[in-house]
Amino acid sequence: MNHSRSRRNPTREPDFPTAKPPSPGGSSGGGAGAAMRLIVPLQGVVQGRGGLILGSVIPGALYYFFQLYLKRCRSAKPNSNPPSPSSSSAQLADLSRSSSRSNLSSRGSVGPVRVSARANSIAKPNASPYYIGLERASEDPYDRFDNPDGIMQLGLSENRLSLDLIETWILENLERSMIGGADGNLNISGIATYQPLDGMMEMKIAVAGFMSQVMGTTVSFDPSRLVLTSGATPAIETLCFCLADQGNAFLVPTPYYPGFDRDMKWRTGVELIPVHCRSSDNFALSVTALDQAFNQARKRGQRVRGILISNPSNPIGNMLNKETLYSLLDFAREKNIHIISDEIFAGSTYGSEEFVSMAEILESEDFDKDRVHIIYGLSKDLSLPGFRVGVIYSFNTSVLAAAKKLARFSSVSAPTQRILISMLSDTRFIQRYIETTRERIQKMYVAFAAGLKQLGIECTKSSAGLYCWADMSGLIRPYNEKGELELWDKLLKIGKINVTPGSACHCIEPGWFRCCFTMLAEEDIPVVIKRIQRVVET
Amino acid sequence: MKMLSRKATFNSHGQDSEYFLGWEEYEKNAYHEVENPSGIIQMGLAENQLSFDLLESWLAQNPDAAGFKRDGESIFRELALFQDYHGLPAFKKALVEFMSEIRGNKVSFDQNKLVLTAGATSANETLMFCLANPGEAFLLPTPYYPGFDRDLKWRTGVEIVPIQCSSSNGFQITESALEEAYQQAQKRSLKVKGVLITNPSNPLGTTTSRDELNLLVNFITAKGIHLISDEIYSGTVFDSPGFVSIMEVLMDRNYMNTEVWKRVHIVYSLSKDLGLPGFRVGAIYSNDVAVVSAATKMSSFGLVSSQTQYLLSVMLSDKKFTKNYVSENQKRLKQRHQMLISGLQNTGIDCLKSNAGLFCWVDMRHLLSSNTFEAEMELWKKILYDVRLNISPGSSCHCTEPGWFRVCFANMSEDTLNLALQRIKAFVDSSTTTNNNQSRHQSNKNQRRKSFTKWVFRLSFRDREASER
User: Which CATH fold would you assign to the domain A182-426?
Assistant: First the structure.
């Protein structure tokens, strides 16, 4: 039961029955309804001589006593005193509204009253096909031998191609690495006791070294500028807390990783403004589009705090070149905003292109470094999502100071740090691992893209990531999001493969799908292609 | 050019309180038996180092647990890829059974109601996010763990309103204190969402009595609010009266499956009971499906490493080991505790009678130059810089009476503890001689100043809180 960087809905989780927040109009206002049903006919009955007075006083009095009864049942709240009885029907309407609200709290058994508004929205089952697909695939996972008719998982960007290398290293080096002290004796205090909550210095040094190695040693990372977190998920949330207040926004080029909608918005109250990229430009990021989005936001009164880019891009798999990075920096400086560069796939490259990190640009130029922050992690490049290691790398000392303190809510487990310090320091092994994994990813990419091409499905030219961005727009009918989701559904139910539809990634053009191929074995590729073919031909 | 968020720029993290300044001083001049024998001894860290040998021998005898092997087979792949926010089932099962064992098996827990988090710090914050909206409040009995000011309030926007407890009844929670706190919150226009207690208490080191627990259940029933019971020290109870969990009290009152039952949540961790704070393992236990659901998803921001989960699942399933560890550990804590209180008694310093935890709540009121928090700070600084001991002043724990200090005893060797006691004795002996001469002179002045400074302090305390909002 595995996940990508984003969480998915478990099967066992019951649907939260009362996820709707209580509506002030009293949709469930039993009390209000009953009151009205009593009052209106009463007023009719006492129409006539003195009827107007009687007709108001009687229901008014009844209502007063009704409110008194409710007040006794309800838990005391000083601001919500029931309004005094009156004869105007307009105020009766107000009374009925507050009566229904008090009904809700006096019942005491309604879900929304017990938990916070934040928890309410989070507890709701997620309707995105991204999560639904992940869940379905995990319920009936494909296995070449044990479950050949199961669902093939192409919606999770996980790299399983080179785990064997890591496994071998661990089995050969573990004892020495985990708690073996210099004298060979077990020394648990190194892992049991409280460690710096933003990561041990040795771990930071090892991770900084790994980042440099994995990005081609063209740039070096300073360990003192790292804050370690339990995965890239908390890293990005922590950065949001540091850079933005509730209601502020980040510009995010589309299509983007569906998990950002949760990770960045859930608890921070931050907004994401999509900046659409198109296939005509190969989904390249344009500063003009950013500028437009920024100005529109300003007109709406929304404060933009920064841009979030993923480089290499998820879900496209392309990389930003130096010129684009420079223009991004210029734009950020002009608008006085931050740049968050999510570089978690930096080591998973397979083309001839070299990856260029934001850090590399800043090293070589005299740019305003305070506004650039990098996210990294070991879940993709080192295939260890279970170990929970993420990185915030920043040139801004204030951000680092705040992030360090926030890291206490998401610290990396000490025994895990110990093992990784050992492994990452074995630079020869790491070099071999990086090269091997690149070869394997490339092999899979070539085979998979070729297989899709045979079916007439083209992929965007990509050189990194664990997936391809496939154009199935010719296969959808109608040519819109509905058509796309129908195809996604067919692929899942009939083809028994789970892929991520572009709409889940906020792609503005329908028909694109992200297909991850690094969870498969080479032998599985023809099976996938055949299954897609089956669906395509129906 | 304001580049950072408000949360990052203001000091609402509470990191500037004395509690943390003492730590900084310690870092600069840490005691070391050989290399720095005159350095500051850390007595402000509630860490348990007394039973490492037990853990080490278990690890040595169970290499497969740390070696990613199950029944001799490598399960590395499975663990490397495991990031399910529901947690490793084998680990959750072992953990709830361990929790039950600590409660004498009087209560049993359902692993599906347990949410794993990266430490109790993360668990407490997550529960706040789940139960309260920004601007709402939780009531906490004083004195309380200084870290709560940061963990419960910082990112959540939730407020803390103190339930004032006093030494007159051993700092127990009373009905009137609860009501007062509730009224205080109302005066401040804060909607109270619940009460949070730490049982056993940090910093008092006492288990919460059955009477207090019943009082709390009555209170939350009447007000329709939540109760969070932070029970991370439940396994460190070394003396009578034994530990009574809130769950036990609910069971005794036949509250299972009632509305109140769903509003009681437990926070747990292996940092204190098992002495493994570095592992970052915490948990939320709740009978409310919505809370479990929301907390589970929020745990994405603080998952426990799969390697750690597996290792602990094997360790906690070894019931022989856990039983022995818990009882042996409690024995050692009791002995250390005794060492500290008798050493202090020899110096004429009393401690609050306690039966749990990794610290004592020490009464140094008689050493204050005046019954004020300024005097407490003065004394604390003297103890930090002259006596070279880092202890936690009561004011950092929001204690209403000056002169109380939390002193930890489980994070050092016996020799170091002895040295610390010697240093205290020397300090008290030397200062008593000088004080005796001055005290008669001071006492008249003090009476008049007492009520004035109390008032002043309360004002400044409120201001501090306001700036932290």
Answer: Aspartate Aminotransferase; domain 2 (3.40.640)
